[in-house]
Design brief:
By secondary structure, the protein is α+β, with helices and mostly antiparallel strands. It has two domains: about 100 residues, Peroxidase, domain 1, CATH 1.10.520.20; about 70 residues, Glutaredoxin (3-Layer(aba) Sandwich). About 65% of the residues lie in helices and about 15% in strands.
Length: about 180
């Protein structure tokens, strides 16, 4: 995964610079997300990697599936990825593109993992607290993980705030084992 991110970074940077220059960042974002889903599909992955299909036919198929969602310059980007044998890293390109977009828009994505589904006002409180701390707009995605028992784990980039009961019990066990 880390190697794929390293390989994908220059493609994502070039895509972002081009999309920014065109004033079409949202369209490129949507197209990359769609292409990522398409190339991540097991059946499509087999077709793309099948030497009997051929690279040009695979590109034609991807462009056909993308339809109007893929603009002229994005179509060229797909061709460049294919010619470089890089269609497999499209998910990483899309991820890095979104990171650049968020940075340009002064937005940060936060993942809140909780033991149960949070109420909208609870999610808003977490978003407001993060926004005042980070001085950025915060987009919150939530995931439920019942084995946390209670509390939550909040991930913002590389920073993790673990205020779950499971996390507290783990810290307590670590302290007891050190003594």
């Amino acid at each position: 995964m880390q190697e794929n991110l390293t390989i994908a970074r220059p493609y994502a940077q070039a895509a972002f610079a081009h999309a920014k220059g065109e004033g079409s960042i949202p369209a490129w974002s949507d197209a990359l997300a769609y292409l990522s889903a398409v190339v991540s599909d097991d059946d499509m992955r087999r077709v793309i990697s099948d030497p009997r299909v051929g690279r040009q036919r695979a590109v034609d198929l991807l462009l056909e599936v993308g339809g109007a969602k893929f603009t002229g310059s994005f179509r060229n980007f797909v061709k460049v990825l294919s010619a470089s044998h890089r269609l497999g890293i499209v998910p990483e390109v899309a991820e890095l593109f979104e990171e650049q977009r968020a940075a340009a828009e002064n937005v940060v994505n936060a993942e809140v993992v909780s033991a149960y589904e949070l109420e909208p006002h609870e999610t808003q409180r977490i978003a407001s607290a993060l926004q005042s701390r980070l001085q950025k707009e915060v987009r919150v995605a939530q995931r439920v993980e019942p084995d946390l028992i209670g509390g939550a784990v909040v991930r913002v980039g590389d920073t993790v705030y673990d205020v779950s009961i499971r996390g507290g019990l783990t810290q307590l066990a670590n302290q007891l084992n050190r003594k």
